[in-house]
Amino acid sequence: MKEIEWSKLGFGFSDVNCHLRFTWKDGVWDQGEFVKDPFITMHIGAACLHYGQECFEGMKAFRQKDGKIVIFRPDENGKRMYRTALRTVMPPVPVEMFIDAAKRVVKANEEYVPPYGTGGSMYIRPLLIGTGPQIGVAPAKEYTFIMMVMPVGAYYKGGLKPVRAVIFDDWDRAAPQGMGDVKVGGNYAASLFAHEKAKKEGWPVELYLDAKTHTHIEEFATSNFLGITKDGTYVTPDSHSVLPSVTNMTLRQIAADLGMKVEMRPIPFTELPSFAEIAACGTAVVVTPVWEITRGDQVIRVSDPDTCGPVLQKLYDQVQGIQYGVLPDTHNWCFEV
Ligand code: COI
């Protein structure tokens, strides 16, 4: 194993020992096998390549203070991938098989789980793809399910350092009755053009409004939206075209446990200036504060550009504390490997 500078890790792919690969054929999933080669050979007519029949997940494993390795809420990611598979007419991976695969692949790559105290974690990326050839538009007859892992650090440079966001009115992420609520690669493909433009013009992340009316907040390209009102209420959008984020679900529970009021409801764009703190939240980005949001000529300054707000800091400390085993896991969110 090559020496890794754990505290300098960014968010990206790196080679590990192996990934776990399963095949679905004639109506059944096989037992899965460890594969060292990170390349895949598939039919040039594979349904995932032509018609986007694919979906993925994102979760993390942590090395805790006492040395234990745990995966955070893999049951929820497994349930979400199950729903996504049904929506995209792929054979769902049973949740038990999903959790077991996650444990197997983390165990097989144990030495790549960053040490406690470095701020790193092991990112787990499950991938389900239609690999059978399909030239007429229809679901594939063969599928591959892959569970891959890699050690990662912060998604946005600087971790909890606040970022600026932009809203573009020219591009939408997901249609009202489309696939925004499931985790398909197409949702991210839909964001790439705007994302590259945003990055070039100085915004690390873009925020999407509802595609039909452009009046309500939906989510960031990479993650969910959450706002803290001036009276300390946790607010997050309720919309069919937003991905139900496991991190958002976790933070809502933590906020409620801390005695905060939690609201999941439509959030008009016009409400943005009234928030005391705003953040992007998700597995990869954890809690990333957003200090300013630009839409055309309008620049909404939410909070301090250099420091994370007190409520977001508390939510971040709580979730990371549970993940790294320094706070009690009262909801049994950590699955030991
Ligand atoms: C995650 O948070 O795990 C995701 O899948 C989002 C992706 C943009 C990195």
Task: Describe this protein's structure.
The chain is an alpha+beta fold and 337 residues long. It contains six helices and 18 strands. The longest helix has 16 residues, at 185-200. The protein is globular, with a radius of gyration of 20 Å. The mean pLDDT is 96. The structure holds 2-OXO-4-methylpentanoic acid. 2-OXO-4-methylpentanoic acid (COI) binds at residues 58, 222, 282-284.
CATH class of the largest domain: Alpha Beta
Biggest sheet features: 9 strands, antiparallel
Distance between the termini: 21 Å
Percentage of helical residues? 10-25%
How do you describe this structure in short?
By secondary structure, the protein is of the alpha+beta class. It contains six helices and 18 strands. The strands form two sheets. Strands 1, 2, 3, 4, 5, 6, 7, 8 and 18 form a nine-stranded antiparallel beta sheet that branches.
What topology emerges from the helices and strands here?
Layout: E1 19-25, E2 28-29, E3 33-35, H1 47-51, E4 54-56, E5 59-63, E6 69-72, H2 74-87, H3 95-108, E7 121-130, E8 143-152, E9 163-167, H4 185-200, E10 205-209, E11 217-220, E12 224-229, E13 234-236, H5 246-257, E14 262-264, E15 275-282, E16 286-295, E17 298-301, H6 310-323, E18 334-336
Parallel strand pairs: 9-10, 9-16, 13-14
Antiparallel strand pairs: 1-2, 1-3, 1-8, 4-7, 5-6, 5-7, 6-18, 7-8, 10-11, 12-13, 12-15, 15-16, 16-17
Helix pairs in contact: 2-3, 5-6
Bound molecules: 2-OXO-4-methylpentanoic acid.
Keywords:
alpha+beta; binds 2-OXO-4-methylpentanoic acid; 9-stranded antiparallel beta sheet; D-amino Acid Aminotransferase, Chain A, domain 1; 337 residues; 9-stranded mixed beta sheet; 2 domains; 6 helices
